[in-house]
């Protein structure tokens, strides 16, 4: 079971600032005794439409925190962020823009 | 000396400290950026879940635990710890008080509740999660550890004595590292912790997430680890000594607005 | 293929979550040199650009978490990639910005040692780049 995610999306001056926190070990190939386990894909959707698609790697720090910026956006817009890792595990969070 | 050569000398003297200042500034920028992009809130979330989870033989949550501001009152509670608690007749810091609530409210044994007080990156401990959540509820509140009750004053004096007391295999005290200005270990400045202006930013940012090992660490851990580094025997969790030291440090930092769980190297 | 089996196949495809549909450039992420990583993302010879802003500290107290904020004002930027030259696997991440997203990202990366951090911006079929050196230190005790 994936650990918690947290997200905050705020509309300010014509853009929407999205900050998302993900619980994930992001273990690397260098770490002995630990299987390689890291997020590979991140998808950001605004009101159901995909706006950002990311491929990331074990080089991203443990418990990743990302900030993104979307064009426009109003209070109440739905922002959804999902991740998928190399083991096929995934998690998703949806927040309304504040 | 001519004015020309005097200027050269002055510039030469200024050049070296300037480089050190640049390093300090860049490190401050690093510290600021990791704090802004810190996963610390994830620990606060888990802590909230644990606070509300019924546990122990009594099958109750910790929600009625009195951390000094009344049963279940979390706002500003951490900033006012350690303090004297009448029901236990002793000065208690957050973790000591949580242990008290785990045993009295939830009916858990001390052994069970302290079986794993310090966790790791894959499995933080209950104390660590709870500390993150509860400390977060004191964001912006001025540090005001108890300093009026006779036992609080006694704890302060004991903490101060311990701070300067040299012992252990290496004949060190806290003051060996934290008692003199302008000391550092590699690139890390060592704050002089008996001085308010140095203690304040430190006590305002513990407990904290440590990026170097992805672990969330508490004050009980910090004190324990300092003793380990000095090659002392391990202090007991929630002991009078650790509470006294925590009291001394927090009282020294009094008045500083608590910033919330920190993010550190 | 019969219509029924085609429909069944399509239903299966649509029912699958992110896993089937998400691609991951194994070759590029597995590259062990910056040059191979750049080749893997079709950016072998990016043109230096002053329109890529990299905001990061010059010194990282610890290489496990190095904060980097990237913004591209190259017109028509559709993607940004982060390559950490001295990492065992230099390609760290690639972000694709579709209609509605700004070419901006802040992330925390791991750096094995002091290294150049190279950002590649993809715009209008061309590639642009900027780099920033970040020093990684071994810290002290750990307050």
Q: Please, how many domains of chain B?
A: 1
- CATH-assigned fold name of the domain at 46-143 in chain C: Immunoglobulin-like
**Protein chains sharing the most extensive interface:** A-C, 36 and 35 residues
CATH architecture of the domain at 46-143 in chain C: Sandwich
Hey, roughly how much beta strand do the residues of chain C contain? 35-45%
Q: Give me the count of strands of chain C.
A: 9
CATH hierarchy, class of chain B: Mainly Alpha
Under the CATH scheme, which architecture of chain B would be assigned?
Orthogonal Bundle
**How is the CATH topology of chain B named?**
Cytochrome Bc1 Complex, Chain D, domain 2
Structural class of chain B: mainly alpha
Task: State the helical fraction of chain C.
Answer: 10-25%
* Mean pLDDT over the residues of chain C: 89
The description of the largest β-sheet of chain B is: 3 strands, mixed
Judged by helices, strands and strand pairing, the structural class of chain C is alpha+beta
- Note the run of SSEs of chain B as H and E: HHEEHHHHHEEHEEHHE
Q: Low-confidence segments of chain C, ≥5 residues, pLDDT <50?
A: none
Structural features:
heterotrimer, A: 98 residues, mainly beta, Immunoglobulin-like, 4-stranded antiparallel β-sheet, 3-stranded antiparallel β-sheet, C: 143 residues, alpha+beta, 6-stranded mixed β-sheet, 20% helix, globular
Structural account:
The complex is a heterotrimer of chains A (98), B (265) and C (143). With 98 residues, chain A is mainly beta. Chain A has a single domain, classed as Sandwich (Immunoglobulin-like), CATH 2.60.40. Chain A is built from no helices and seven strands. In chain A, the strands form two sheets. A four-stranded antiparallel sheet of chain A has the order 4-3-6-7, with no helix packed on it. Chain A has a three-stranded antiparallel sheet with strand order 1-2-5, with no helix packed on it. With 265 residues, chain B is mainly alpha-helical. Chain B has one domain: Orthogonal Bundle (Cytochrome Bc1 Complex, Chain D, domain 2). In chain B, the strands form three sheets. In chain B, strands 6-5-7 form a three-stranded mixed sheet. A two-stranded antiparallel sheet of chain B has the order 1-2. In chain B, a hairpin with a 2-residue loop joins strand 3 and strand 4. The longest helix of chain B has 34 residues. Chain C has a domain of 98 residues: SoxY domain (Immunoglobulin-like, Sandwich), CATH 2.60.40.2470. Chain C is built from four helices and nine strands; from the N terminus they run ααααβββββββββ. Chain C is globular, with a radius of gyration of 19 Å. In chain C, 45% of the residues are buried. Classes of the chains: A mainly beta (98), B mainly alpha (265), C alpha+beta (143). At the A-C interface, strand 3, strand 4 and strand 5 of A face strand 6 and strand 7 of C.
